[in-house]
Structures are given as structure tokens and as C-alpha cells.
Amino acid sequence: RAQEKDDLETLEEKASHPENYNSSKFFADLPLSEKTQKGLAQCNFKQMTEIQRKGIPLALAKRDVLGAAKTGSGKTLTFLIPVTDGLGALIISPTRELAVQIFEVLKKIGKAHTFSAGLIIGGKEFKVEQERIARMNILVCTPGRLLQHMDQSVGFTCDNLQMLILDEADRIMDMGFQNTMNAIIENLPPHRQTLLFSATQTRSVKDLARLSLKDPEYVAVHEKA
Ligand code: ADP
Ligand code: MG
User: What is the C-alpha separation between 120 and 140, in angstroms, rounded?
Assistant: First the structure.
């Protein structure tokens, strides 16, 4: 236990110098817990994609990140890896299907960790979710259902939230969740880290970024012509 704490402090110190990882190509080069390294190796994730090489070291250094890269570029691991090595994260995804996909990857790469993760997407009974939601370290949610719990679930608070992830921000906005997102963000502690990912940079994504991020690092991967 004590050994584990020392190791985590060393990792945190290393992670606070993202410039040292500018030329890292492999997940194994990053300052990640052994548990996360083990989960990645078991999934056969070895070499990072470009958005991962640029984004993960900044996210580990606790910077806010606005990540722009097309579909299929590997944005999910860019936020899930910093999530597994932290505690207290809320991941917002536009649809149930996408939330389930994220949850499945999280379970795989987080296998060696002892955190508890929950899926809050409606469809299941509200009461069942209410019983579980207060005990979770990591929640993967759709916007409407999350706001419903913020309004109605007594034991549920986000006061200790460390990380907010907004995935597929363009689709969240396209689906008309502007007001829902405003209300959610108003309920969150201002001292938190936020990572926002989007395949396209629309006007409404910029509005959401302005509302949710503080002095973000802009990390973009452009398609080669
Ligand atoms: P995006 O969210 O950018 O659309 P995903 O994160 O869903 O993309 O990743 C697309 C696919 O690439 C997934 O099947 C994922 O398992 C795979 N993938 C992501 N990162 C890596 C990696 N570093 N090595 C191998 N495969 C990867
Ligand atoms: Mg994605």
C-alpha cells in the first residue's frame, strides 16, 4: 500500500513535465500506473496514434484539452487513460450506444484497477441507477439522464469531481443538448480538469468549449491530403 502511494507520487511528478514526452511513441513510455500499463498490454495497445501522442501527456499534466481529430483517430483512449489513472470522473457522451462503447473499453483497460464505474444512460430503471450512482468513481452518462439525477437523486453530488470529459461534443450540440449541458456544467465544481473531444469544430462546439474549459491546450490532428 505505502509502496503503491510512493509510486503514484513519482508518476505524478513525472506527469507534471509533459514536454518530456514529446517524442514518446509507445504507451509504455508514458508515466502511467502499472495497472493501466497492464490493461493496455492485455488489449494489445502498444503504439499511440497521433492524437494520443499529443493529447495524453497534456491530460496527465492536468491541463484542459480541446482535442480535434476525425472519427477513428483514437480519441477514446486519449481520455480514458488519464481517467483510469485519476479518480472521480464524469464522461458525457451524446448517445446510449456511444456511452456503452466507451464503458466497454474502460472495463477492459481498467481491469487491474479497483475503481467502480457506472453507466447512466436511461433505459434501465431510474431507481436502480439512483442506488448505484452515489458509489461510483467513474460515470459514463448521456446528458439528459445525468441532469435528471442531478435534479432528483438525493445521495448524488459532484462536489469532488476531478475530471469532466465531453466526448463527441459536436454531436452533443447537434442533438440539441445546449440547455442541458449549460445546466450540468453549472452543477459542477469549477476546480476540475476538463477534456473535450470532437471530430468537427462547429460554432456550437466552440461555445461549449468556452463554457467548460479553462485556458485549454488545443490538440489537433489534420487529415493528410
Ligand atoms: P474516435 O473516438 O477518434 O472516433 P476511437 O477511439 O473509437 O476513435 O478508436 C478507433 C479504433 O481504433 C478503435 O477500434 C480502437 O480500438 C482503435 N485504437 C485506438 N487507439 C489505438 C492504438 N493506439 N493502437 C491500436 N488500435 C487503436
Ligand atoms: Mg469517439
Answer: 6
